[in-house]
Design brief:
The chain has 28 helices and 20 strands. By secondary structure, the protein is α/β, with parallel strands linked by helices. Strands 9, 10, 11, 12, 13, 14, 15 and 16 form an eight-stranded mixed sheet that branches. The longest helix has 20 residues. It is globular. The chain binds a DNA duplex through helix 5, helix 9 and helix 25. Belongs to the helicase family. UvrD subfamily. It catalyses: ATP + H2O = ADP + phosphate + H(+); Couples ATP hydrolysis with the unwinding of duplex DNA by translocating in the 3'-5' direction. Pfam families: PcrA_UvrD_tudor, UvrD-helicase, UvrD_C.
Amino acid sequence: MDVSELLDGLNDNQREAVAAPLQNMLVLAGAGSGKTRVLVHRIAWLMQVENASPYSVFAVTFTNKAAKEMRARVEQTIEGSAGGMWIGTFHGLAHRILRAHHREAKLPESFQILDSDDQQRMIRRLLKAMNIDEKKWPAKHIAWYISAKKDEGLRPGDIQAYDVNEQLLQRVYSAYQEACDRAGLVDFAEILLRCYEVLQQQPTLLRHYQQRFAHILVDEFQDTNTIQYRWLALIAGDTNSMMIVGDDDQSIYGWRGARIENIKRFLDDFDAETIRLEQNYRSTATILKAANTLIENNSERMGKSLWTDGNQGEPISIYAAFNELDEARFIVGKIKTWLQAGNALSDSAILYRNNAQSRVLEEALLQEGMKYRIYGGMRFFERQEIKDALCYLRLVSNRQDDAAFERVINTPTRGIGDKTLSHIRDCARAESLPLWYAAKAIIEQQHLSGRAATAVTRFLELVDGIEARIGDLTLAEQAKYAIENTGLMAMYQAEKGEKGRARVENLEELINACEQYELPVDEEFSSPLQGFLAYTSLESGEGQAEEHEDAVQMMTLHSAKGLEFPLVFMAGVEEGMFPSQQSQEESGRLEEERRLCYVGMTRAMDKLYITHAEARRLYGQEKYHSPSRFLRELPDDCIEEIRVRTKVTAPQQSSRFSPSLTQAAFADSGFNLGQRVLHAKFGEGTVLNYEGAGAQSRVQVNFDDVGSKWLVTAYARLQAL
DNA sequence: ATCCCAGAACTTTTT
DNA sequence: GTTCTGGGAT
């Protein structure tokens, strides 16, 4: 590609960033302002104009998806291979360095990665051994604590524990770390911290990477945490060509350690120039104006205002639903209309604050026979049956892996009970041995009863046997061999019902994934299996066996970041839901919620609907939320209210409507409950739920605007208790 | 080893 | 209200 072509089609600011001299730079890139484009073109520019070698490029993203996209677009732009460049996620790149220098990092060659589930099991095990009450100290919280400390670059010894609680946490952290080290295991946070420490402690190594990576590019910089910042700074050294791209207004991961202030810190530490990308190529002027106005309510912004030379577009529609069912019905209705106008389902998205909200929406879509796809949820490589299989493979490749040992020693059941297991654990603890070797020792010392000893021996031989047999097999054959010979397949085949069938299918899909897997040529893995295992932990399997059909896209606001859709619905925009209850109680959280709202709004290209429900069944209770404060922050001339809100009046004593009130409401309208379809005119304070003695019914109510009154179609679904 | 029930949880998510 | 989990009973 010709050099001038690299700048063609870019606006002035984008061009300025792409063609900037070698210097540290912050590109403050608003939503939909073409930041990926700038990064990609910058890489091409560095190569073609600055004669940078591909080996000098180090491009970091947060997600595998973003890394993959960047690599693909670079290759497209430079019309060649991006091999030699390091383009990947923070964890992927740090992991790569650790593999290459596992000795310096004091890790076994076949070290394995713990996902958060493994991590929690590991902690639970420790808590039992340390006699700590799990009720008082849930493994989840402790895992959270440990990760948070690692994210800040803190080892147990760096923590000043002033009170007994923190001292306990510190003790568990310490024990956990020892257990991981002994087993050759690293958790996600450990990958970064360990890599950081190795580079810091090995000046020769560090110099090597610093000299090699003359050009560092970082995407989504507002999401970096402390250790990520330090890691980048270390590798950058005094290089003066680091380009970071980010948007302080889209920082929504503060709750998991992201430091929005890293952007400002970068400006100081690296004496960087700032370039702003404010022209938006995605949304209508109306949507942008509303989003801008909203975000201006935040303080300490770096300042940025999106604009477009495109259409004004339609106003943002705000719908005040009677309850969550009405909300779902409304949304589905609008999607239906949109579909009938000749649009694709997959161009519409429903965004919500928390996953629990998806259910009612799903039911409504199902009722209309509309296809949908929900993002998030259980990932492929995290499924129980998949993890079982992977843990066998982990154990095959690294006998020290205690987490894997614990998981599969009695899966499928082979007569190794709690007693035998705690025997092995005791021995392991006493001798500071991995469980595998403790089990071996116990058998040799004949400390077990005949039956238990046979069972354990058979297990050890099983794993050894797999390793002996898979030597010259392909990866897929190895997996197949392991899944079948361990009895896993038989176990899940025997499991009845839809669930068992799905699990068998997943195991087959795992073999398929092995077939598809390509070992990265330039990374240092001792075996294809090793590479595959790392892949399964770092890439959770999004896209595995996924169908691409035309469907409504459903996801949380968080997972919508980076995406765009012509038609967007934001559901449940109510006080207590969004901003969430807890964000209103803790200080500083509110602004992040507002940024989340900003992110949500700026996903919409053409039309945005925002809905809120006056009544909502939440955790089994009827809640009456007022519309979100964020709605009040939108400028009047950008919005239209589809249904003027009515005041829902609950009876004084109870937060639920009473049966008599419900019956009265229906009787007043001249209809009886139980009648399949009812037509009624309802006024303010419409009663939506009916609960009678002996039978429980949920009244589903459909509303359409008819002048100042509402024509109501309702039917009751009576369910005997 | 398996099953069943009581009790707890319950933002947001990538790696 | 629902779903998951852990512990106790069979």
